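I am writing to request your help with a piece of structural work I have in hand. Thank you for your consideration; the sequence and its tokens are set out here:
=====
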Amino acid sequence: MAVPSEKAPEPGPLARAVSAQVKVLMAEHSITAQDLAKKAGLSRSYLGKRLRNESSFTVNDIEAICDALDVDLEYFSYEVVRRRKRGKYQEQQP
């Protein structure tokens, strides 16, 4: 089986909007990345790469994060789409 030699593609606008929304939720819930990783069952380095947009979150990651923060998945999705449409990928721009 061949191993891909190229680096993974950079996360696109939707992936960056997801990451930004996770950061917003972290701020709203006053939770650190380390604490969120533990509550969501993710490693700190895994979560950190996604928060820095070095890799994209999976659907399973988002589900675990929403569960950990007691956030409705529909609300999360709505906010991500709204953020993407407005081109606001930074956590400082709600």
Q: What stands out?
A: The chain is about 60% helix and 0% strand. The longest helix spans residues 13-28. The radius of gyration is 13 Å. The mean pLDDT is 88.
